[in-house]
Amino acid sequence: MLSLGANAAPFGKTTERSKQKAVAEAERAGLQQKLSTLKKDISKTESAKDDAADTLAESEKAISDANRALRDLQQEQGDTNVKLQQLSAEHERLAATVAQQKQQLAKLLREQYVAGNEDRIKLLLSGDNPNRINRDLQMLSYVSQAQARLLEALRANLKAVEVNQEEAQNAKDELEEIAQEQLQQKARLEQEKGRRAALLASLSNKLVSQRKEAGNLERDEQRMAGLVDKLNKLIAEQAAAAAAEKKRLEQVAAAKAAAKAKAEADARALARAKAAEAERQRLARANTTKSGTIKPAAPNPADAIDADEPPKVAAVKPAPAPEPVNETPARAADIALAPAAPAGAFASLKGQLRSPMAGKVAAKFGSRRGDGPSWKGVFIRATEGTDVHAVAAGRVVFADWLRGFGNLIIVDHGGQYMSIYGNNQSLLKRIGDVVKAGDPIASAGNSGGNEESGLYFELRHQGAAFDPAGWVKF
After folding, report:
1. Region (Disordered): which ranges (predicted)?
2. For residue 324, how many other CB atoms are within 10 A of its CB?
3. Which of 38, 242, 256, 428 could bridge across to 335 with cysteines, CB 3.0–4.6 Å?
């Protein structure tokens, strides 16, 4: 998404921010590939080859990416500025402490110099009163200890100042890196907006006619239903994989605990056997010492020991090795779509959900769409760029451009409940992100060839759309 110049830190340095971004992008790669494959599978069944909205797809996706990047950069910039302020305050505190410690050290050295800098050897050979010598030696010891402590504290604080300066410089480098990326993203955004405006002007009449065509509306509905069904299947598969992984890890832990307990029991049995053998030998030596002959110890009815054979330590078999278990942890991409909210949490919110955005409901669930199928959700009219909020906590399971719905984001709320937000100008969250109720997840627009700016909103359960009016306070 960004050029090499945007990602590179100033002066060729690699900042912590750059490293974290690289790791985050790598973690998303596997999941993005799966959902891209899913999207391609849906597109294979399409019969329409020349949908005018498809011409806008690349430009609308680029606008969404640029807006999201700018928002992320603003958040990073704010966080980095706060960190820099904290580091600056810490630097001032450390500098004051270091200055104070240097003054204390200088004072100690000056007093020692004024006192004649008598060392221990001179005191011992001075022939002075032993009590005074002892007192002075004790005092010198206290002074030396104080100097050592002061020097150690001074070294630690000087090291802390050095670390603080490195962190502050890293934060400044990150701010410069962010500022550079912001300039590039703003330029890219303006370029893409101009490109989209030109495309809209050239495709205007074709878009209007295609949006009203009943066949296109039906295909849009089928496309959405197919996407939701496939997402539900993928979520179920990954939830099952996560449960299996958890069970496997529990079995690994149980096997390790059993093996450890067995080994400890065997060790205790071996120790008891060795102790019993040592006791027999001790008694035998004691009897030999007393009479010169070995007196057999009192027989133990529980032991059947052959008199012609020396006592033997009971054999202890080592614990059998546990079955080899694959301890490789599941990859994050394999479980990223597992529900972020427990089943039943969303259903309990019926009638309490806040509207995803402020605006006028222009089309209601079930109303007719010209000669085409009825609305499966609601359309809320709003100005371009208005924030769209998640109606409840969940996890983003789809965030991409989809024909008929433009920049689309889908949030899974657990229990096979999903909320769907379409026609957005920008998507502010990515696949796998966990969101809370009220979090901004997109900004309203008219992507996908929609005539009006606003938000298309749906609620679905087990893949079927239902009227959100009884759930959401519009």
Report:
1. 1-60, 289-308
2. 7
3. 242
Amino acid at 388: V
Distance (Å, whole) CA 165 – CA 112: 34
All domains of the chain, ordered by start, with CATH? 51-212 (1.10.287.2610), 338-473 (2.70.70.10)
Distance, first Cα to last Cα, the chain: 36
Residue keyed to tokens 């022939």: 127
What are 182's two structure tokens? 């912001």
CA contacts within 13 A on the Cβ side of 177: 26
> How confident is the model over 107-134, as pLDDT tens digits?
877 776 765 555 555 655 565 666 665 6
Q: How far apart are CA 77 and CA 83, in angstroms?
A: 10
CA distances from 65 to 92, 231, 407 (A): 40, 22, 10
Nearest CA-CA partner of 28 in 443, 429, 442, 406 = 429
CA distance 328 to 331: 9
Query: Rounded to an integer, what distance in angstroms lies between the CA atom of residue 258 and that of residue 13?
Result: 50
Q: What's the average model confidence in pLDDT over 261-281?
A: 89
Decide the pairing of beta strands 353-354 and 472-473.
parallel
CA 52 to centroid of chain Cα atoms: 39
What separation in angstroms does the CA of 292 have from each of 282, 285, 307, 325, 362? 15, 10, 19, 60, 113
Tell which phi-psi region holds residue 125, choosing left (phi > 0), alpha (psi between -120 and 50) or beta: alpha
What's the pTM? 0.64
Q: Helix crossing, 130-212 with 16-44: angle to 10°?
A: 20
Crossing angle of helices 214-291 and 130-212, in 10° steps, is: 150
Give yes or no for a contact between 447 and 423, defined as CB atoms under 8 angstroms apart.
yes
Tell me how far apart the alpha carbons of residues 97 and 107 are, in angstroms, rounded to a whole number.
15
Can you read off the two tokens belonging to residue 397?
């399971």
The neighbouring-strand residues paired with 401 are: 407
pLDDT tens-digit map of 405-430: 999 999 999 999 999 999 999 999 99
CA 447, CA 432: separation in Å to the nearest integer? 23
Locus of tokens 């938000």: 455
Q: Please, are residues 414 and 346 in contact by the beta-carbon 8 Å criterion?
A: yes
* C-beta of residue 256 within 8 angstroms of C-beta of residue 322: yes
